[in-house]
Amino acid sequence: MKLMQFFSSSFLLLCFALISVNGDLITDTCNKISDPKVDVKFCIEKLEADPSSRGAKDLRELLGSSIKLIKPRITEVSSVITKLTSDPKFNKPALEVCTELFNDAANGADEAYNSSVKADYDSVLTYLSALDTDADTCKQGFEDLGVPYPQPLVDPTNYFYGITNIALSIADMLK
């Protein structure tokens, strides 16, 4: 009986230690990010909320997990763009350009992930930087036409930038 209690206690301690180590990986990584565009609290909150990130054993796995978080953000932005396209108060040509750019971004996110699996961090950085550029170009299209960036796109685009910049920062640490 005492032997069983010993193994049970040892198992629980090991589980807590593993959880603690993974939590420390996320916190330590987010605290090491020097990019002023990355909010440490946002970084920790979003990565700890993701089971894949929480289960990451090292920075390489955390990078893969953070890249996977980008795709749903792209889908969210694209969905808002699609809804706005049917609303006459928004500039349809600019929104159509944004649709193309975020379609490209979806492919770029896939390429970034594939490159991370191969530990090709230069390519990861290139693809992730292109994602930021796609979003910037979308915004610039509205400015060039002298119309405001649609308010319904602001929050989803900022979320997209936040997650993308976390992944960029992690990839930079691995380079």
Automatic annotation (TrEMBL):
<dbReference type="InterPro" id="IPR006501">
    <property type="entry name" value="Pectinesterase_inhib_dom"/>
</dbReference>
<feature type="signal peptide">
    <location>
        <begin position="1"/>
        <end position="23"/>
    </location>
</feature>
<dbReference type="GO" id="GO:0046910">
    <property type="term" value="F:pectinesterase inhibitor activity"/>
</dbReference>
<dbReference type="InterPro" id="IPR034086">
    <property type="entry name" value="PMEI_plant"/>
</dbReference>
<dbReference type="Pfam" id="PF04043">
    <property type="entry name" value="PMEI"/>
</dbReference>
<comment type="similarity">
    <text>Belongs to the PMEI family.</text>
</comment>
<dbReference type="InterPro" id="IPR035513">
    <property type="entry name" value="Invertase/methylesterase_inhib"/>
</dbReference>
<keyword id="KW-1015">Disulfide bond</keyword>
<keyword id="KW-0732">Signal</keyword>
<protein>
    <recommendedName>
        <fullName>Pectinesterase inhibitor domain-containing protein</fullName>
    </recommendedName>
</protein>
<feature type="domain" description="Pectinesterase inhibitor">
    <location>
        <begin position="21"/>
        <end position="170"/>
    </location>
</feature>
